[in-house]
């Protein structure tokens, strides 16, 4: 076990260099030290880090790109902090909002958000939930760092809020454990007030989120998910809470579900509503009056969904990447191919016994219903894909190792000539052995001709002798 963990760590530290965007704009030297404590270990592990910080940084590391939020530093330097030592909660909120909004406006940060693809966004919790938009438009995980003790607003983003009765809020902590009844009541009261405040604030946060991030999402060419989904992704809860099974439906990133005819879409919704399953549908626009078991999102983390144990079926266009992900995860396909390689992928999958193919038409919904009925009433497709998945995963080395290996091999051996196909060294007629055939034929023809000549000569001689004896006999 120890051995395998060590191998895993080795792979993690050498195999994958991730691109991580750290947005840590809190303008205070102590916060900045904390930020460095996050950035440095990432660099040390070999990752590429882009760090938005109010402070100037020089030559820290070759893999660090710094976006200097100079305006924020200057803004704070110009403020009379000392004169504001007894500021209240509202002032702090306004201050942090100014910082967070000003950060989102920074042209350098906007440029990388639009033009580059990161693997994760790390940001500091600074009372501005609209910052969920950074990770939402990158379509990557959002990692929050908090510099104050555990509190319900942070808790809400990763869990259910359940600390109110047991963990004192930051302003309500004098160290007594367990909390006295009075302190617990105060905890409850503060939490209530904070919720009221949040409720009043919600429309501002939502509109700030939309006004800042929808232009950036448009520039990246991705849909901006509704604020609630970006801020608190409930997919995990939906998947975990659906032991009866989940059907995942996505027509991929190029084909847009919203280009379905309205009557086709409505018929699909009606069909899904009649199923005893949870349906996750990648659909780019909000839909009014969704059945309670159907959930739409403009974007879905496909592989993470497919590998969830409750997923029973994947309705897909049958693109190769989707098909491979489904095979990897062991989920049967209901394929509705549209163009390109999709029809032949779907046919292959059907022939292999882990898919049913339905033709894409405006009136395809009865066929989809029949296919669902056929696939969900038996374990055949499920068992078949599990078997194929097992075979698919049985490899001597992971494909990612092979990519690295062959690219390095090609570079280091200057072209990997030693493993090229030897066929490339021959002329076409040599590959087909035409010259050989020609020689064989020539030899055969020559032999046959020679034999023929010899036979004729011999025959002629024998016959010639006979004729002579016959003519001699006649004369006698
Ligand atoms: C910088 O990143 C590259 C590629 O990710 C890596 O090979 C290199 O070792 C990194 N440099 C340092 C000093 O870690
Ligand atoms: C926030 O920004 C606004 C507009 O720039 C300014 O009027 C206000 O004083 C700032 N508030 C704080 C607390 O920095």
CATH T-level topology of the largest domain: Rossmann fold
**Under the CATH scheme, which architecture of the largest domain would be assigned?**
3-Layer(aba) Sandwich
Judging from the principal axes of the Cα atoms, what is the shape?
A: elongated
Q: Roughly how much helix do the residues carry, as a percent range?
A: 40-55%
- Indicate how many domains the architecture comprises: 3
Number of strands: 11
C-alpha-based Rg, rounded: 36 Å
Question: Which CATH top level class of the largest domain fits?
Answer: Alpha Beta
Q: Overall mean pLDDT score?
A: 88
Transmembrane segments: 432-459
Pfam families: UDPGT (PF00201)
Subcellular location: Membrane
Protein name: UDP-glucuronosyltransferase
């Amino acid at each position: 076990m120890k051995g395998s963990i060590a191998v895993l760590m080795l792979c993690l530290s050498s195999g994958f260099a991730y691109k991580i965007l750290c947005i840590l704009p809190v303008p205070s030297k102590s916060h900045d030290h904390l930020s460095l404590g996050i950035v440095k270990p990432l660099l040390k592990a070999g990752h590429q880090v882009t760090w938005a910080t109010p402070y100037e940084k020089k030559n820290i590391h070759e893999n660090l790109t710094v976006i200097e939020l100079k305006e924020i530093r200057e803004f704070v330097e110009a403020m009379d902090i000392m004169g504001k030592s007894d500021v209240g909660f509202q002032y702090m909120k306004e201050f942090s909002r100014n910082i967070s909004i000003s950060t989102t406006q920074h042209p350098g940060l906007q440029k990388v958000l639009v033009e580059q693809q990161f693997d994760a966004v790390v940001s500091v919790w600074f009372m501005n939930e609209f910052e969920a938009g950074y990770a939402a438009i990158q379509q990557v995980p959002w990692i929050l760092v908090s510099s104050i003790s555990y509190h319900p607003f942070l808790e809400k983003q990763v869990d259910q809020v359940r600390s109110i009765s047991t963990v004192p809020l930051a302003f309500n902590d004098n160290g007594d454990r367990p909390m006295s009844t009075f302190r617990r009541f105060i905890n409850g009261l503060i939490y209530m007030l904070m919720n009221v405040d949040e409720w009043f604030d919600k429309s501002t946060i939502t509109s700030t989120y939309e006004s800042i991030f929808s232009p950036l999402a448009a520039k990246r060419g991705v849909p901006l998910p509704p604020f609630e989904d970006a801020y608190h992704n409930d997919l995990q809860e939906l998947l975990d809470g659906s032991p009866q099974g989940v059907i995942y439906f996505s027509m991929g990133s190029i084909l847009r579900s919203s280009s379905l005819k309205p009557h086709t879409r409505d018929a699909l919704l009606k069909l899904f509503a009649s199923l005893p399953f949870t349906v996750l549908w990648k659909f780019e626009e909000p839909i009014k009056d969704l059945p309670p078991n159907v959930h739409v999102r403009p974007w879905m983390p496909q592989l993470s969904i497919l590998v969830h144990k409750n997923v029973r079926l994947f309705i897909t266009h049958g693109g190769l990447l989707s098909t491979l992900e489904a095979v990897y995860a062991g989920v049967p396909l209901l394929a509705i191919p549209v163009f390109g390689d999709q029809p032949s992928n779907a046919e292959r999958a059907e022939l292999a016994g882990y898919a049913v193919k339905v033709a894409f038409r405006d009136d395809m919904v009865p066929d989809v219903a029949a296919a669902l009925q056929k696939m969900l009433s038996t374990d055949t497709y499920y068992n078949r894909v599990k078997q194929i998945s097992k075979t698919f995963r049985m490899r001597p080395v992971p494909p990612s190792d092979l990519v690295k290996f062959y690219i390095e091999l090609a570079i280091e051996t200057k072209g990997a000539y030693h493993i090229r196909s030897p066929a490339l060294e021959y002329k076409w007629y040599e590959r087909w052995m035409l010259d050989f055939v020609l020689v064989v034929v020539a030899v055969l023809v020559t032999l046959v001709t020679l034999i023929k000549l010899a036979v004729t000569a011999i025959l002629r001689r024998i016959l010639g002798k006979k004729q002579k004896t016959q003519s001699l006999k006649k004369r006698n």
